[in-house]
Amino acid sequence: MPPLSRPTFVKTTSVDDLNEKLGAYLFAESQSAIQAHGKFVFATSGGSLPKAFVSSLTWAVTAGLDLRTDLWHVFYADERHVPLDDPESNHAATLEGLRAAPWWKATLHPINPTLALEACAAAYQAEVEGCVTRGVFDLVLLGMGPDGHTASLFPGHPLLLHPTPGVVAISDSPKPPPCRVTLTLPTINASRAVAFVALGEGKAQKLAAIAAGGPAALAIPSALVRQEGGGATWFLDTGSASLLPR
Ligand code: 6PG
């Protein structure tokens, strides 16, 4: 197992501070990708991320940054295998957040949940491969659960060891709903950039273990992200950063 690369922690002190720092980061990553290959292709996650993602982009637009979202393609790092209008759908949560965003011109790439789970994962993998440049995302934007999971990669789950890039199915997710599709670690780690948004006291213990590194961190799925390709950037708040060294 290669040594874990050092993460970069961005500690924010308020929602406005998070919006500004995450918004500036997303703008910079989008500009870099558009300059490099004419579009920005990234994957985002569910949970609290849709709200944070839309709020930070709203800050960027309000700050006068030209996001060029018409050149953006947005996939899901993981998605629940439910109808797209189901309250559990990450796509539904993202669309809900974007209802008040007239500036949003990006192409969202939802899964096709009418396909059986395995076929849905395979079809999504083909859609990703048809859109990314040189086989990699420009950015993967992740959350972390209190157990250290990220996307739908859970502690001790065999999918953590899936050796190849792609989109795979999981039918026993410990976080409901049980059936999902998820990017594999090789796909996440091949991305040009990876960032986490991890907020609240509930994440503090796992973050402290990730920051400390060492054998304990190897059991935390989120710690396995970007171990070869350089560290991930973590956007934190006072709660999630509360156990990190000052
Ligand atoms: C999902 C998410 C999941 C999420 C974490 C953190 O679809 O369930 O992608 O991986 O990012 O569970 O969720 P919170 O940010 O809401 O704590």
Poorly predicted segments: none
- Strand arrangement in the largest pleated sheet: 1-10-9-6-2-3-5
What characterizes the major β-sheet?
Answer: 7 strands, parallel
> What Rg, in angstroms, do the CA atoms define?
17 Å
Ligand inventory: 6-phosphogluconic acid
| Residue share in β-strands | 15-25%
Give the number of DSSP strands.
Answer: 10
Label the overall shape. globular
Structural class label: alpha/beta
Mean of pLDDT: 95
Q: Give the CA-CA distance, first to last residue.
A: 29 Å
Helical stretch count? 6
Q: List SSEs in N-to-C order.
A: EHEHEEHEHEEEHEHE
Q: Could you estimate the helical fraction of the residues in percent? A: 25-40%
What does this structure look like?
The protein is α/β, with parallel strands linked by helices. Helices cover 30% and strands 16% of the residues. The protein has helices at residues 15-37, 49-62, 90-98, 117-129, 185-190, 204-212; strands spanning 8-11, 40-44, 72-76, 78-80, 107-108, 139-142, 167-170, 180-183, 194-198, 233-236. The strands form two sheets. A seven-stranded parallel beta sheet has the order 1-10-9-6-2-3-5. A three-stranded antiparallel beta sheet has the order 4-8-7. Strand 9, helix 6 (204-212) and strand 10 form a beta-alpha-beta unit. It starts with 7 loop residues before the first strand and ends in a 10-residue tail after the last strand. The mean pLDDT is 95. Bound molecules: 6-phosphogluconic acid.
